[in-house]
Amino acid sequence: EQVDETYIMVKPDGVQRGLVGEIISRFEKKGFKLTGLKLFQCPKELAEEHYKDLKAKPFFPGLIDYITSGPVVCMAWEGVGVVASARKLIGSTDPLKAEPGTIRGDLAVQTGRNVVHGSDSPENGKREIGLWFKEGELCQWTPAQAPWLRE
Ligand code: DAT
Ligand code: MG
């Protein structure tokens, strides 16, 4: 099967609230492969490029202020079906509508403070990993558990 990549980011509220380990854990336990990880203070230009499709939205300036308001944790994850599966683990954009058991459903209460980002398509996964990581910041490796995750 096709192996995809997704860009997952703990937003500044997740970092400030001490949820970094909890959020990383959800993806780690599921069985996806971590290929990139860093704590990073995002410049305004990068936040605007990342969210460029939302530029016309009334909440765009607030979104950019929020994402640049403190450090974020940038992650690249790899696996078969990882993009759609990560979106399910994350839950709906509005945390009050997100199912219990999802990250937003369990850990957040408002759309404007929804603790985590996940790419919405394999194409955007690639695009966003390219935006947030430099060459040499990603690792290709074989997890020891690989044969115990997929037959
Ligand atoms: P998602 O993050 O679930 O992919 P999105 O791509 O539609 O959602 O929007 C990106 C982020 O923008 C979202 O996580 C929070 C913010 N946002 C979206 N809709 C919003 C709204 N109506 N009010 C405030 N912030 C919003
Ligand atoms: Mg989105």
From TrEMBL:
Domain Nucleoside diphosphate kinase-like residue range list: 3-140
Catalysed reactions listed for this entry: a ribonucleoside 5'-diphosphate + ATP = a ribonucleoside 5'-triphosphate + ADP; a 2'-deoxyribonucleoside 5'-diphosphate + ATP = a 2'-deoxyribonucleoside 5'-triphosphate + ADP
Species: Populus trichocarpa
Binding of ATP, residues: 11, 59, 87, 93, 104, 114
GO biological process, one term: response to hydrogen peroxide
Whole-protein coverage range: 89 to 239 of 239
UniProt KW keywords: ATP-binding, Kinase, Nucleotide-binding, Transferase
Example of a GO MF term: nucleoside diphosphate kinase activity
Name listed for the protein in its UniProt record: Nucleoside diphosphate kinase
EC id: 2.7.4.6
Record-stated family: Belongs to the NDK family.
Requisite cofactors: Mg(2+)
Lineage summary: Eukaryota, Viridiplantae, Streptophyta, Embryophyta, Tracheophyta
